[in-house]
């Protein structure tokens, strides 16, 4: 760009940004500055431009000086970027790159997934085993070339390549491979295919036999599968896409975007939910495939058995996935950092991140204070951890449920890799208050081994702090934290919490009524137990349980066991979890008596809404928030109202409760900023409704956008709280 404007000088990549020196007249320098803003590569992030005039020597060219690595300081590592349009064109016109599926340039291609260390250059990536050919080398060194210093630069004669295998044959010619894969997909087969951050399984999303067979072999319950569409028109045929959604699904991050379904794919894709996790092609090979595929949509789900981490290792992939898939498509470049496809949803015109991984990681969250040397180990089920470098919090990719041993290994391995790549030296540890979380155990091991202090952070305080960190808030606020489960300071299970909090601490102003969970964790898998428990709590033994049709479908013996447990208070831990209330209501109206996957009951409850109403059910706020009247009214509504209406009215009730208690806090404490965080706020209907009601009542509302509102964002909250508690 400097050359285009005839400006001489130099540019230098530093740990704190980019420094450019140019000499010339002010007007040209101004135009140059504007061009930088306007034509910045899509994946770049210009936080600010500062211009200073200074005395310099005479330059007679523009040059790029080597980047300086200052000990312990880092330049940001780029997330992986979807292939750009220029590169797609090169696949048709550049003689060295015709149909070359590893084409990339400085604007696109793999980044985080192939990086082994810093500074970011080819020798520190898994591209190191490929020697650049002469022509790539000259592009790599040509300042005016789009591939100048593109570390993964490659072409047909020097770069990685795909290979294909099934029970009968092996292929290495990409054209033959694509033909074969298309045939397989068309005939209902499953193909294992190596992606950017791990292996995927792929089959025709319109072929119900293919999808249900894959589901069975993968041992995947009924959790919805993600779908890759050929292009935007294909996606629009099956999903409703508004402007904000179109922008995100097309963005260089290429996440899975949760969209409202318009037309049916195979019913086995989403098992009766009204949403589809949709994405567009992002690797060159995806584009090539859709050219030869007849179907406009394929299921593309992580290659693993049930809930293990996505497989990255080629040999393990072959061993494990060949039993699920009919054929195997791989390539000979190693994946160093495992990433899943990220999942987002547009709520209130803004991005809500549900799973933060490919395309997002490891971009840091900028803070106004130092978190240097702090490592926060996160929660358990949707674990991510976080390390502090200066004023930046670097979140790991989505790790998953630590109770799964393979996932726990992924957690340990990734902590080592992050420490290595970011040259991180821990001085302070943060973890959850829950004594049994595996992340807590790991934190305790770390504490003993390194002899550094450990700070335990209450789960819902961390949720609220994660959102405060995103918005640069460091003051007392109203924190509404609704989720399923979190360990409370009183030893009970929390999750319907109204906190008055700052980054140092909190008081619990009010919470959802405690309700027993008959059978403990078992009640999470069987929402009918929570339905029974709520009714038992509010209306007792004498209630006519037979009058609710849900209980007619449950084994009489099971019901009496639950009743015994409740009467005698045996194995009935108390919970204020909002998730359990949603479970109970979902079960009472017959949507999900038993949950097969995580959060299924609340998802089905939200999915049932198909109407517009502002009506809500009665509720009480006393010392706690009491839903007795709500449950009573829902049961009365059952024979006369549609499920859709009952569900909408129930969601409105929770939103009204949020408003009501926020008003009480405002009255007492003169606070006006409300933070909404916790997994329940992944519910689009609830979050939009709550935000609307609060804003209309002149509250300032803050929600999560950079990190998940679910437990995947907990580690960010932990790290900022720890930084404030540090002596
Ligand atoms: Zn490109
Ligand atoms: Fe949580």
Q: What would a concise description of this structure say?
A:
By secondary structure, the chain is of the alpha/beta class.
Question: What's the structural blueprint in terms of helices and strands?
Answer:
Elements: E1 8-14, E2 17-23, H1 26-38, E3 62-64, H2 85-93, H3 134-140, E4 162-166, E5 170-171, H4 174-186, E6 191-194, E7 199-204, H5 208-217, E8 226-229, H6 232-238, E9 239-240, H7 243-250, E10 256-261, E11 275-279, H8 284-292, E12 297-302, H9 314-321, E13 327-331, E14 343-347, E15 350-355, E16 365-366, E17 374-376, E18 386-389, E19 392-395, H10 405-421, E20 428-432, H11 438-450, E21 454-457, H12 459-470, E22 477-487, E23 493-501, E24 506-511, E25 515-516, H13 522-525, H14 527-539, H15 549-552, H16 556-568, E26 574-575, H17 578-588, H18 600-607, E27 620-621, E28 625-626, H19 628-637, H20 643-669, E29 673-677, H21 684-696, E30 700-703, H22 714-725
Parallel strand pairs: 1-3, 6-13, 8-11, 10-14, 17-20, 20-21, 22-29, 29-30
Antiparallel strand pairs: 1-2, 4-5, 4-13, 6-7, 7-12, 8-12, 9-10, 10-11, 14-15, 16-19, 17-18, 18-19, 22-23, 23-24, 25-26, 27-28
The structure holds zinc ion and fe (iii) ion.
